Amino acid sequence: MIIKKSLINKSIEYILQHIDEDISIEDVTNHCNFSKYYFSRMFKEETGSSIYSFIKRVKMDQSVVSLKVEKDKTITEIGVDYGYSSSNYSSAFSKQYSICPVEFRKTMNSTEVANPFYPNEYNTFKSFEHYDAKIIIQDLGNFKVIYERYIGNYNEIGSNWYSFMERYKTYIKLDTLLIEKSYDDPSITQLDKCICDLCITVDEHVELENVTMIKGGKFAVYQFDGSIYDIFVTFLGIFNIWLPRSGYKRDKRYVLGIYRNIDRKNNHVTMDLCIPIK
């Protein structure tokens, strides 16, 4: 599903940037200068979710990512970070994921993970040393981009890229970068609810309604060279294995995938997997 209304994208961006705050429906509608009733109806028509359900889902999903990487925090502390009391967090967590947070955290010691895109397949993580040897800490600059925001299964990214690039082919040059800006971990978030922006870099003079600036900053950059089918487990390995032992903290921004070379015939890509850190 492409989110076509710029106002809805503005509200989603606001929610994602303030997800660890006590954000309300009124905060979102006031930010967009619309009445609560009218904007709530428009939001649901465009996204398929109410504003309240969207905020609740993203808060819980992001708290699970924190459970993975913030090993120095207790489960209670993480629940409180996202607006839950201790008992409410455990109950809400168990209801959404059919496992309690204590048991979930124990699974983080595993060296393999079920692949959500291929349910019968398990992927094994590499060692900390493997990821550490291929990661460079970089300060990335800002990127001015044309973007389209999708809510849906990451498996559909390939076909979405084809149609996106066809629509904006007149803006594509030799030095244009293709960038994926993603917010969700598909091993946590329901596959049909994952948020991803497809972006192409453009010159400063380009002005369209769907032009935005991807803000740079400090990232752990893993130089990936392999099959597109291995991108998911590599991202997850960085989060599950490397980040908790790296000495860095996750910065609650978006993850970037910057393509350097694409061999569509052989499903092979060279790209930078960029994890925001602080």
TrEMBL record:
One Pfam family hit: GyrI-like
This protein's UniProt keywords: DNA-binding, Membrane, Transcription, Transcription regulation, Transmembrane, Transmembrane helix
Database matches in InterPro entries: AraC_E-bd, GyrI-like, Homeodomain-like_sf, HTH_AraC, MarA-like, Reg_factor_effector_dom_sf
Transmembrane segments: 226-243
Protein name: Transcription activator, effector binding protein
Claim: Transcription regulation is one of the keywords in the record: yes
HTH araC/xylS-type domain segment(s): 9-107
GO function term, MF aspect, one: sequence-specific DNA binding
Superkingdom of origin organism: Bacteria
